[in-house]
Predict the 3D structure of the following.
Amino acid sequence: MLEGKVALVTGAGRGIGRAVAKALAREGAFVVINYNGSKERAESLAAEIGQSGRAAVYGCDVSDFESCGKMIGDIIGRYGRLDILVNNAGITRDGLVMKMREEDFDAVIAINLKGAFNTIRHASRYLLKQRSGSIVNVSSVSGVSGNAGQANYSASKAGVIGLTKSVAKELASRGITCNAIAPGLIETEMTDAMPQSAKKALQEQIPLQRMGSVDDVAELVVFLASEYASYITGQVICVDGGISM
Ligand code: NAP
């Protein structure tokens, strides 16, 4: 389905990004696995994909504007194109707003929101010239509905939705799509870090009565990056077991 396409997935060494990279490679895309801290895991994923498909790793902190420019430039230089950009890298620094430290607000915005801007900003001129491309931004149901204890995270993910819609409008005339995915509670290291009681309380509110898997999200990314979704842009699709209904 994605043969001949070059994809960049940020934060792809582990969690949702790892599953997204695997799924895109399975469908024939050449995948650039971006990592920040998880070099070994990114390399092991590239080796795993290498048995059936093609992949490369690229270390870069997405909150760094210049480094993102270099990453996108190197990808274009080495592989000649970029067709799929998945902005998945993200962090949490939870706490009640009354006690939230300024650096925890800034760090979450810098990675979750500005990180997505950084890659889109640098990739957009290539995509515009190419007259094709799919951008998929990983937001969150916290960005759709808000969440107590996550003012910074919810603000960043709501920002990603605004970014997605504006970029979709700017790039649509050249056939480039930009959509957001809003996962609910997905089983990864991010949710492993939540207190069991908070997880249980949230799980009880999920109509489908289970946490989501990384593959639930990855398969939607594959669809949005494919020709089947070429008439879908500027949308926010929740993968959340119905919790945001
Ligand atoms: P995770 O397991 O904690 O993984 C986070 C990923 O982000 C890692 O691959 C990490 O890379 C990367 N990352 C963090 N800071 C980075 C930076 N400065 N530059 C580049 N990469 C960076 O989290 P996850 O659950 O897979 O989350 C993936 C995305 O889904 C995030 O945007 C998250 O907000 C969103 N999401 C998750 C859930 C959920 O329930 N899990 C729900 C809604 C939305 P390194 O390890 O290499 O640093």
Strands lie at 6-9, 30-35, 54-59, 84-87, 133-138, 176-183, 236-239. The first helix runs from residue 15 to 26. The chain is about 50% helix and 15% strand.
